[in-house]
Amino acid sequence: MIPKVDLPADARLDTLAVREGLPRTPWGENSEALFLSSSFVHPDAETAARRFSGEEEAFLYSRFSNPTVTMMERRLAALEGMEGCIGTSSGMSAILLLILGLLKAGDHVVCSQSVFGSTVKLFQDFARFGVETSFVAQTDVGQWRAAVRPQTKLLFAETPSNPLTEVCDIAALADVAHRAGALLAVDNCFCTPALQQPVKLGADLVIHSGTKYLDGQGRVIAGAVCASQEMIQTKLMPVLRGAGMSLSPFNAWVVLKGLETLAIRMQAQSARALELAHWLEAQPAIERVYHPGLASHPQHALAMAQQAGCGGPVVSFNVRGGRAGAFAVIDATRICSITSNLGDTKTTVTHPATTSHGKLSEAQRQAAGIAQGMIRLAMGLEHVEDIKADLLRGLSALP
Ligand SMILES: *Cc1c(COP(=O)(O)O)cnc(C)c1O
């Protein structure tokens, strides 16, 4: 049996974020130990046999069990309010694990058309293996319902979406899924459990790219699937053991330590993003601002109810002058990092039309609402006045 940390049963989330994991080793370390060990040693051959047969729980081999990875998994599961979690090598491999674990040829998936671009590609690729996916409008529950077939096994959503911050109604989608005998998986990358716990709204599985806010400082690639213990033991763990999209202990340790500051980072970065969004709305060179915290956002009320009253750290906006205008504003920044990553304490800016959405045709981009003048900004922890000044340099020079 792998022991638990001795915490009061009613310990609150802020406490679990800092304390949940495994008990200290006999050395009494205060910061969690990093176990860089590919395998674990048994006292004798008889014990090894019991452990390999599953009769006795123990760490065996780091492709599927490692104490540092287990600490990260327990802590993230606690934050999501879920029974279990499996760490994976990336956010994408978390989704791959989900597909391999839950679906087979002949099954059907309904997925938002506004999910992360690589997620769309991954689901499309599985058509080769007989798993078909229908893509539907993020915010139109009627379209999700209409797309369901007798073979539908999974609904997959991500909210808010990137870069338009469109919010879908998790409780409504859970209802559509469950009436069809299907499961709802939510990619909770943009809100994290600090703002939104999809399981409380009826979701069955939660996906994470740990690369983003969970790490929070742009250091590692990591991912996770949170699910019930039963689903983990019977469907997901057997695939991880065989397919090996395992999270490295080092990356797990970085994410584990990131979780300790997750809630205060998310609140601080969201508050700065909202202030920036209000300021952007008042700028003459800005045509439109997208942030769920703004009253002008089409799903503002839903977002406030679903996301603990926070809009999240991502703000997108359209500047006058199309692509040239957007490039001028981006290139005039001296603080913001020009990179399409997000979830960092350093503010990042990107031009979706030529990066994350660059492979779409102009017609597809227009249908998706990605204008040439759009900039996506993921607010970090710099002083918001410095970020305003960084953007104003380019904005005030626009014709
Ligand atoms: C980045 C991202 C992913 C993929 O995660 P990786 O860690 O880069 O593999 C999945 N979903 C969302 C919403 C993301 O932003």
Question: What's the quick description here?
Answer:
The chain folds into two domains: 18-259, Aspartate Aminotransferase, domain 2 (3-Layer(aba) Sandwich), CATH 3.40.640; 264-395, Aspartate Aminotransferase, domain 1, CATH 3.90.1150. The chain is built from 15 helices and twelve strands.
Structure write-up:
It is a single chain. This protein has 399 residues and is an alpha/beta fold. The chain is globular, with a radius of gyration of 22 Å. Helices cover 38% and strands 15% of the residues. Helix 3 runs parallel beside helix 10 and helix 13 crosses helix 15. The chain has two domains: 242 residues, Type I PLP-dependent aspartate aminotransferase-like (Major domain) (Aspartate Aminotransferase, domain 2, 3-Layer(aba) Sandwich), CATH 3.40.640.10; 132 residues, Aspartate Aminotransferase, domain 1. Bound molecules: pyridoxal-5'-phosphate. The site of pyridoxal-5'-phosphate (PLP) has 13 residues, from helix 4.
* Mean pLDDT reading: 97
Order of helices and strands: HHHEHEHEHEHEHEEHHHEHEHEEHEH
- Could you name the CATH class of the largest domain? Alpha Beta
Alpha-beta content class: alpha/beta
The profile of the biggest β sheet is:
7 strands, mixed
Gross geometry: globular
Number of domains: 2
As for the CATH topology of the largest domain, it is Aspartate Aminotransferase, domain 2
Instruction: Note poorly predicted spans.
Output: none
